[in-house]
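Re: the 167-residue chain
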Amino acid sequence: MNTTLFRQHSGFTLIELMITITVLSIILFMGSSLTRSWIDRSQVNNAINSLKSSLTQAKTAAIRNTDNQAMTQPAVSVCVTDNEILIIRNKNNDAANCSLTNTNNTLLKKSELAKNISIKQDNSSFNCIAFNSVGMVTQVIGTNCSTNSNFSFVVEKNNEIANFTLL
């Protein structure tokens, strides 16, 4: 009797390896897109928490009014740039309220934001908001700072969008 007919195969055929590699690559591809979505969501949540914290801290610093600003002038501003949120104590009611090159302004806090985070208020890009010495939103002459005391924001990155309202 021929013993070669009963010999068992050891290892995998080329077809089996190709199918295994194809299935694994599909699983990895799906996992990477889910991971990207999870990271974006995490970065949106971090931006929301940073903005909430910054607005609250700015309001508190404005009420403290350590520079004795008049009630008609901004005491503290929250400014959003490309990748950061700044809390700045203002000394003058001018267009340089978000500028640190203005020697009258003092940086109170800086929070980093992830790249490509978009923060909007009333369907337009949110740049800054200023508080007077009683913690109310006030206008800053010559700027595009928000004068809306409705603290409803939309924070987004890629396909991750979150709405929040600060009371």
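The CA atoms of residues 6 and 12 lie 18 Å apart.
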